[in-house]
Amino acid sequence: MLNEIKNTIKKYRLIEDGDGIVIGLSGGADSVCLTHVLWRLKDELGIRLYTAHMNHCLRGDAADRDESFAVEFSDKLGIECITERKNVKAYAKENSISEEMAGRELRYAFFEYVRKKFSLNKIATAHNKNDNAETILMNFVRGSTITGLCGIPHKRGNIIRPIAEISREEIEAYCHENGLEYVTDATNNELIYTRNKIRLELIPKIQNELNSGFINTVTRNAALISEENDYLEQKADEIVNLAKNNFLSIKNLDCHIAIKRRVILKMMKSAGIKNISSDYVEAVIRIVNANKSGSSVNLPGSNIAKIQYNNLFIGCETKKTLPFEYNIPIGTDVYIAELDITVRAEFAEGSGVIKADKNSVITIRNRRDGDFFYPDGMEGKKKLKDYFIDNKIPRDMRDSIGLLTVNNEIACILGKRRDRRFITDGQGIRINILK
Prior knowledge:
This protein has 435 residues and is of the alpha+beta class. It has twelve helices and 22 strands. It has helices at residues 2-11, 29-45, 61-77, 88-95, 99-117, 129-141, 168-177, 194-209, 214-240, 257-270, 278-290, 384-390, and strands at residues 20-24, 48-55, 80-85, 122-124, 155-156, 159-160, 247-249, 296-299, 303-308, 311-316, 325-327, 334-336, 341-349, 353-354, 362-365, 372-373, 382-383, 403-406, 409-413, 417-418, 423-424, 427-433. The two termini are 64 Å apart.
């Protein structure tokens, strides 16, 4: 078993020479086995170890017994044990979550605290092959996506699971062979928890009546699903990386539905959207497939998905820019808050200057109803509204585009187009954007 664990560590690059590791030590057989194995390998692997035990304050004297056991067991191995007490029941009530979820959140927060306090770089937990099978079944019953059917990863960030490919039977046998005592949490046998029902009732029934090697079968299948999931994630990431400022061209979503769902989900997460259900993803897919400019879907947290000129936008709706107008005196820096720029107008001559003189009234403002100009390179005049439409400028961005005016006539759309009436190679003004 020790060799199998070493192979797992090497295969998934869980531990490297010089690592500092905090082990989550509950006192049960799994965590006792993990702690003992890493203690035996510490010199070979070149690592330093700490253990961390959190008392959930749920089981009275039994919880205190487990805490004392964790400290004593660590002491025997010469490992410092850090303990913490948290009122899991109160935390669950305050956050409207289950005690199971509350305990998990508090444990990992405590492990991370210990990791940082002692300048460690890894957190090792004792999830095993049986835990993986239970998690996969639990996720399947609850309607998980394919990601949930991959099971518990060997590594996630700085969290590692060295005994993930070891069964609970092997773990208990290891403890027996090495004379290792451990404690048993009585709540593990209470059927009020979903995981316990799966472990104590569902899996034994499957093993007895359908497949005696069910745990190994699930583990193999999860590995295959995980590999295929990694490929789909990679392809989705390639598309998401093409997005700019939360906009992605619809043509990039001309892909298999499995990839399309992942891209949309990733864009939502990138926009900081939480509580994403499959209903939201499917609703966005519908407007993407229809590709009708202006169509939209409201998303959690005042966010929106919308189609704009063959682009999908996902994120928080841009706040409407109110009407603004600033006088621009020659030689004076003027900050325009709505555009977050500072401009300075100076007399100049040559290409790129705007026809104006010392008596001209120069302003920068945003659009108004009825605006028109005479675009450089075109004949006649054009409504500003039509120019924005022809150039596929999203409606919600049009109020935040600056217009340079000379004597109340549009002389230039900043950064886009000039009015041919104000083009000159002689003396005029040049607008310098300083920020």
